[in-house]
Automatic annotation (TrEMBL):
Transmembrane segments: 16-36
Source lineage: Bacteria, Bacillati, Actinomycetota, Actinomycetes, Kitasatosporales
Native source organism of the sequence: Streptomyces eurocidicus (Streptoverticillium eurocidicus)
Entry keyword set: Membrane, Transmembrane, Transmembrane helix
Keyword Transmembrane: yes
Protein name as annotated: DUF3558 domain-containing protein
């Protein structure tokens, strides 16, 4: 039996993105509120958001030919607090064109150390950027972690430093889903690489991916080859394969997931694996394999949330394997429906762990 490591239990919540009036929460606990530039500055700006973006960059996610306004009172070297830069075609705009946030990492990235069953939809909605980056792109938001060396440069108390780009309006109707993600990813990485360079913490591999983040592939779930893994059989024998679809994200197993979902959209389980050194390192640092619940994440205890996970050794790296399953009190009905179609949770975890480690050429840990 594999030991179940687990993370902070998170209740369901509706995420409301508001970039009209923003308070930045600092990594060190301080607060900062920023105002717009004066109206007479809107057409004079050639660089934006701590000089990380050019007018051309801004136009690629905005309206070409417009004047823009942004607030960014500090240089990158002074960005030791969480900051937010809003960019708009005019200072009095109700909703800015986009917002660029710099600061502590978010728990919304499902491959991180605080993933839980309520976040299963994030695997479908947020596509990995690829290129070995710890980042994602969604329908109106994209984010990436800066290299680990930036923790010290940004004085983040050892916490990961994240750059997040949020569009003020949904542009998918204008550009289409793929083009929107391409533009967001390009602008996000331009800002992130510039900031890392200014902070003196950039690395050779921290570059924009050469291709667009691909959307998840949806297909029927085979009985004995689920998620493309030979021998992986998560469905009960009586379950009909027409009742369960699988949605696979990621091009390889560096950051990869497979979500089992019913035709009505109910997500039954999520399986994920990542070899990203930043995520693996944070998991090892925050979650104790011997004393679940003792680890701390920003002051919050990483108690059990019914998401079994394990670190496995691979040839040149480690991999973090996790299974999410709806079995909290709030998800009783989801759990009932999942149990009708899927094997018990521990069997799912062990079956997936065996199949994916074999596919990756890794080795599962042994416990006495």
């Amino acid at each position: 039996m594999f030991r179940r490591n687990s993370d902070q239990a998170l209740s369901r919540r509706t995420k409301v993105v508001s970039v009209v009036s923003v308070v930045g929460i600092a990594v060190g606990g301080a607060l900062a509120v920023f105002a717009w530039n004066r109206a007479d500055e809107t057409t004079a700006r050639e660089t934006f958001c701590w000089n990380s973006l050019s007018r051309e960059d801004v136009a690629s996610v905005g309206v070409k030919g417009s004047g823009y306004s942004s607030q960014d009172s500090q240089s990158p070297a002074d960005l030791t607090l969480t900051q937010l830069c809003q960019v708009s075609t005019r200072p009095d705009a109700t909703v800015p064109t986009f917002a660029l946030k710099y600061g502590g990492s978010s728990s919304d990235w499902p491959y991180g150390t605080r993933s839980n069953s309520s976040n299963m939809g994030q695997y479908v909605q947020r596509f990995p950027l690829g290129n070995g980056l710890n980042g994602w792109a969604g329908h109106n938001e994209a984010a990436v972690w800066l290299p680990d060396a930036c923790k010290r440069a940004a004085k983040s108390n050892g916490n990961p430093v994240q750059v997040t780009l949020t569009l003020g309006d949904n542009q998918e109707d204008t550009w289409g889903a793929q083009e929107t993600r391409t533009r967001m990813g390009r602008v996000l990485m331009k800002a992130a690489t510039t900031l890392a360079g200014e902070l003196g913490c950039s690395t050779e591999g921290f570059t924009a991916p050469g291709s667009t983040p691909k959307p998840p592939a949806e297909r029927r779930t085979p009985l004995d080859h689920a998620c493309g893994l030979a021998g992986f059989s998560p469905l009960r024998e009586r379950a009909s394969t027409s009742d369960v679809r699988e949605i696979v994200s990621g091009d390889d197993y560096r950051t990869w997931s497979c979500v089992l979902q019913q035709p009505d959209g109910l997500r039954l389980a999520a399986f994920s694996v990542t070899t990203n050194p930043q995520l693996v390192g944070e998991y090892a640092r925050k979650v104790s394999p011997n004393k679940p619940g003792d680890a701390q994440w920003n002051g919050e205890s990483a108690v059990a949330d019914r998401s079994p996970s394990v670190l496995v050794g691979c040839k040149d790296s480690q991999a973090l394997i996790r299974v999410s399953y709806p079995d909290s009190k709030e998800e009783a009905e989801d759990h009932r429906r999942a149990a009708e179609h899927l094997a018990p949770q521990q069997d799912l975890f062990e079956g997936f762990a065996r199949a994916v480690t074999k596919r990756m050429g890794c080795e599962l840990p042994t416990h006495g």
